[in-house]
Amino acid sequence: MSTLQFVFGASGSGKTEFCIRKALEEAGKDLNHNVYYLVPEQDTLAMQKRIVMHEKNKGKGILNLDVLSFQRLYYASFSHVNKKVPKSLDEMGKIMVLSLVAEKLNHSSSLQYFRGELEHLGFLEECKSLISECMQYDISPTDLSDAAEKTEKKLSRMKMQDIALLYEGFLQWLSEHRKFTEEGIAGLALEQIVEDPSLENATFILDGFTGFTPSQLHCLELLFERKNSILISLEIRSREEGNLYDKHDSSSLFYLTKDAVESVEGLAHQLNVKLLPAVNLNLFDSISGEKREAGVPYPRFRDIPVLQKICDDFATGKSFSSVEQGILLREAPDIQREVEDAGAYIHHLVKDKGYRYRDISVIIPDIESYRDILFSRWKDLQIPFFLEEDIQLFDSPYGKVIRSALLLTEKDFLFDSVFRYLRSFPYRGKEAESLLDEWENIARARGLKGKKAFQSLLDIPAVVKDGTAGGESVREKKSTVGEDSTDDKDSTDDKEQTEDKEQTDDKDLTSVKEMNVLKEQYSVEIKVLCQDLEFLFHFYEENADASLLKERMDCLFRLLQNTDLAERVEESLSFLDAEGMENRRESYHRSIEEIHEIMDRMRESLGEIPVSKKSFALLFDLAFSVEKLRQIPATLDQLVVGDLRRSRFHNPKAFLFLGLNSEFLPAPPGSKNILSEKEREFLRDKGYRLSPLAWEEGYIEKYYVYKAFLTPSQELYLSYPRALRDGKSGKPSSYILELKELFPWLKASYSLKEKREIYNEKKAREELARELPAMCKKRIFQEKLELEHRFKTEAFSLLHYLWNKEEYREKVEKLLDALFFENRKEALSTELSKALYGETIKGSVTRMELFTACPFAHFLQYGLKLKERKTKEVQAFDIGNLYHKMVELFFKRMLKSGNDAEFFGEKMEKILKEVIEESMLDPQFAVFQEGGRNQYLLRKLSQNGKRILWALGKQLLAGDLRPKAIEQDFYFEEDGLSLRGRIDRVDSFLTEDQKTLFLKVLDYKSGKKDFSLKRLFAGLDLQLPLYMDYVLREEGKKHKDMEILPSAMFYFTMDNPALPYDPEKDAEKERLKALKPKGLVNISEESLSHLEKLDAGESLCLPVQVKNGAVEEKGAAVSKEKFDALLSYAKKKMREEHRRIKAGEKDIFPMEEGNEQTACSYCPYHSICGFDENIPNFRYRRLEDKTEEEFWTEILKDAEVKMKEEGKTGAKAEQDSEAKQETEAKKKATRKGDE
């Protein structure tokens, strides 16, 4: 007859010690009697070591004592009966089978609820997990179908029926192909247990389990039937013993223990198993067997008695007021400081208390939030640690190359996929990395995509159909792709960028030259790079011809072999040792073999299945996301960092529990995406029990936290951060509050108030950088020279220590330079300014405006010639250029035909279409025809163009002025200054008497642009005035007998604004108002009459207000006198800026315009200048805050002064001329007399 005995005891009471002694005792009685010590899978190795080294194991052997997990017991049963263990279908294989079943069901239209989800990787993975869960809990497809019929909710019924169909199809496929899952192998193993003679009349000791799955209970059932003695240790504290066998609920702290007892005892009663009296280690000592004395701590807690109180009274409402040692609670401002403080504490334990690193364990509930900080900070602290987490294969170097190669062939050599592949290779060296950077810039500027484009750029031989390289190299051909991006980066001045673009060389020819330079500079590296790509092209061609999975797999194996990827990965892993990441290096090394095994299994089990390139790539995504690699500690003397549930810690002396923040614990409920909580509850009510519900998980988590608190034997360190990674503040976990309720004296120490530990030179530098600024504020010293002689504070001691070390002196000097850095005004020398800019400052008006906005940005762009990385993508200025081109061609046609009204009538749409087609012939707009997205954008821009031309037509036809010039050249030449540009449109009107010519200038803008006196006064809005001044002067030269008058100058925003719907307003008028140009209008009566026939109220085409039949002189409406003064002032500002540029000014002094708009807002150079208002002398230059009247007063005053100066200069010139003429006359008279 079989027997069953329980061993009960709280954490630390000695349950494992009792079980080991019992196992050794039973094994020692008779060597022919088998003893099986069953523990969870992750405990097997540690338990073997513990039993071998136990003091009672005199022979230090375990001949008839096996330490196994349930899974290992299953596999052992096959060998005991001389049967081969069938190969199991791994997690990836399950998903693949499910995808085949789902595809078949989808074709037959059998699925109702999940029909649209079948192609999603996440759904298949969730479905696989649910089916595995059903198999583990012994729920069949029929059970799910029966449950579906019993629910009244239609959607739930459809969902369960679909899952039942998928589940049934999955089992059917396994049966047809004679494949097994891990759960299926467990079922087969149970059949072998019945036949295995070694599993009869044996002793089984189960230790370390918190509960049992249905499969494990079935195994116990079979063992009970074979006359075995079974001893099971379970955790429960003394105050819970009284209700151990009572009806219990899930909210109990020891619910798992009580549920396990109920399940196992139920089996024992069914099978008439003899139940022996339970061993209660809460009352008796695990070694001597004697009764425990009251108040004496359990063996584990003898050096830290405070944990005995946690063990007995946690979460009971009890409290203890007397202060005890052993628990340290820390609060840190953030996660980084929390990790640093924990590292300092570990150093204290090792260096001051003599601990070994293996004596210390760390638990973190949310490892993801801590991982990178742990590796960064503890590496600096030289703390060896093992992070107990699985590594996903696609994070390994080998997996990254495979995934990127498959993605590249699937995406057909798109730009990003090519460089993802090249950069996924193990570290190539600095030279090769520099080559890749340079090559990527060239390829990005050309917008390369497609295999042939990359072949031609690198001169790689084309691959012929037999998979070999043949034929002559494909040479670069001149292409019609767009020009380079421009020097002028003003986002609102697209036209000037086009002018700069027209002056550049052909992009393809330039890139060929650049590639030739690279080939000379990096001859060795580019040879390897070309070879990698050439092998990839072979793989691409072979993979395109393949159809079966095994054929594609063979192609991939050849690629890996040709590139020597495994050897290159192995060579690259050595740097991980230097980084203190031996565990990670070992895992990456094992990942190569693991990936090869996956590929072999895929080929063997699924090789004959036809798969597309996309499905083949998806298969690897599935495999790499599901298959994880367990890490193995590289050395023994290192601390273990684990998570709350999976990790097992074996008697650490010190235990650190980090991350006790309310955001991490209690953990937010995990999502079970396929079956909702209510549907799981429904299944449970119908007798089909699955994994615990979300609310039950919360109570189970509390049990694991309780066990974690009781893990150490000497030191318990608890900590939590106040701020999380995202900056969000957090509170201490509710478990901390329960501890404080138990121990009212437990207070958190605050790391900011405590002295930081310094244990190496790097930490010393960090502390020095932290402390010196504070000391400067206290005026402890004034000059750097004093630093060596001041040692009164810790920071000065650190400074002195590091300064006297030769290897750190340079770093300390840099630290001091940074500490005393100020933004000082330093101009370029005259010689250097000439060398950078030349004798003549050349450019556009935009260049002068950029200098005003920020002299340093001007210096970087025009002096150092820094540019943003070139890309062949549609940029904002490309859209502006296209708008400009459309409008330019449209008006040129109109100017040629001479029929204004016809162009803005019915024919406008047809003409616009022709204009767009003509625009597309320009190489710079080729990008709009590449790809569906850009073509869609072109159609949208065409629709906007129609609205733009409509508005321009309405504004033009409202007055008498007509286009005189389209894209008129602009020139401004003075001593040392040469500006170029193009005026978008010049309109004119000649009066009937042929004596007066009115002129209007329009400048098109793709971004929102308004004319501002405030900006012009500062030197930012010079473009319109300078253009108008140029047009007036040029026309004056041509028509000296006419009066040339400015009528208006405008910015017109090319846009199609969305307007709020208002049925009471005229939509056409509202749209015209929204598209009204911005600028200045000459309000003389004759000028206004030719611009628009104005009625009372607001003008539809001009930015003016009409009151009492006249236009008020305010805002955009100005007199002729003001107009002239403004043009004069603009030229003055331009000359000032020219002088400052020549003088070498390059201050970091950006302009701030208000409304959070500054010169830094869209500046590409912000990372270079490091502008920061917190640094001395870094500040914005703000626009002068004056009224409109004050600005005009200044401008008119300046014009008056200039007129006086010109008058004096004119009078003096006249006097000089008369004197010269008189002198010449006297000379002539003298010559006559001589004759």
TrEMBL record:
Q: Which domain of life is it from?
A: Bacteria
- Region Disordered, residue ranges: 471-508, 1205-1235
Protein's UniProt name: Uncharacterized protein
According to the UniProt entry, its GO molecular function terms are: ATP binding; DNA binding; exonuclease activity; helicase activity
Q: Which organism is it from?
A: Oribacterium parvum ACB1
SUPFAM superfamilies reported in the protein's UniProt record: P-loop containing nucleoside triphosphate hydrolases (SSF52540)
Report the residue ranges that make up the ATP-dependent helicase/deoxyribonuclease subunit B N-terminal domain in this protein: 6-277
The root-end lineage is: Bacteria, Bacillati, Bacillota, Clostridia, Lachnospirales
The record's listing under InterPro entries reads: ADDB_N (IPR049035), P-loop_NTPase (IPR027417), PDDEXK-like_dom_sf (IPR011604), PDDEXK_AddAB-type (IPR038726)
